[in-house]
Design a protein that fits this description.
Elements lengths: L8 H21 L5 H10 L6 H9 L20 E13 L10 E10 L5 E6 L4 H15 L5 E4 L6 E5 L2 E4 L1 H9 L3 E4 L5 H19 L3 E2 L5 H15 L11 H8 L18 H6 L1
Parallel strand pairs: 1-4, 1-8, 4-7
Antiparallel strand pairs: 1-2, 2-3, 5-6
Helix pairs in contact: 2-3
């Protein structure tokens, strides 16, 4: 007789056994590996497991699990994007527990707030030329320019304040004017806004930089980053919306304007030294 109803608890435990065996070596190698990275690896190994089940399995290994602060964004499609620089130390496959050399990378992270579409660009530094180039690449990758971009308060954006008003970096201000996009700064008063930018960088560092190893920084890391962005935008459901960013991207793109300068005389890298470096 065919059994009806949900599977018995022993059956559920048995179905998780192959996944548990696969997770063991990963956890032994990196006890702090993010649950999302475990889920991705299980999916590639054709033994998929839900995040809730992965958390339960990890509960027996980790006494406490880090909880990411979730920040809900307000606004309508096409209204806001956020941008910030990040720094992370990454590991190569040649590293061992006794011989590990710190390899530091710089990146720029960009996210449309409504759809949660994410783009990350590897940058050589955090100067204004790198900021503008990464921002324009992000406009192109997301399919348009939002009404405003929210920044932290780095000197690449604000040189100083006079009478309480910001004095913008001239190169960035001209690029934003040319592309028809406003600048909005995080302020100390609303912590949820500041937290949103910090969480974007923290997410990239945890879910990508700290979760993976790379053969080389010059070729393998960029290739893995490109593949991870496809996964993050098309497969991984956003915790804020419950769906992958691509499910809401078309709606947001309809509210963006074309990523092309409104003035043809603009130059985003104005100094001779900047042109030499790039």
């Amino acid at each position: 007789m065919r059994r009806r109803g949900p599977p018995a608890a022993s059956d559920a435990r048995g179905s998780r056994a192959p996944c548990t065996r696969r997770c063991g070596p990963w956890l032994a190698e990196d006890p702090a590996i993010p649950p999302g990275e475990i889920q991705r690896r299980l999916l590639e190994a054709e033994t998929p497991l839900g995040l809730s089940t992965i958390y339960r399995l990890l509960g027996s290994v980790r006494p406490t699990l880090p909880t990411e602060v979730m920040v809900r964004f307000e606004g309508v499609a096409g209204e806001f994007a956020q941008f910030d620089f990040g720094v992370a130390d990454v590991r190569l496959t040649s590293d061992t527990t006794t011989a590990r050399v710190r390899r530091r990378i710089h990146f720029a992270a960009y996210r449309l707030k409504w759809s949660r579409f994410l783009h990350v660009v590897l940058v050589p530094n955090e100067r204004v030329e790198a900021l503008v180039r990464a921002l324009l690449a992000s406009f192109a990758a997301s399919g348009g320019v939002p009404l405003r971009v929210v920044f932290d308060n780095p000197t690449t954006v604000v040189l100083r304040r006079e009478a309480g008003r910001p004095v913008w970096n001239a190169t960035l201000a001209q690029a934003m004017l040319d592309y028809g996009c406003g600048i909005e700064l995080c302020t100390p008063s609303p912590p949820e806004q500041k937290g949103s930018v910090e969480n974007l960088v923290g997410f990239v560092k945890r879910a990508f930089c700290a979760a993976r190893r790379f053969q080389t920084l010059e070729t393998d890391l960029p290739q893995q980053l490109a593949a991870w962005l496809v996964y993050a935008n098309t497969e991984r459901p956003s915790r804020a919306t419950g769906v992958p960013p691509v499910a809401r991207l078309a709606t947001e793109q309809a509210r963006l304007h074309a990523p092309s300068p409104r003035r043809t005389t603009a130059c985003t890298c104005r100094s001779p030294s900047a042109r030499r470096r790039w």
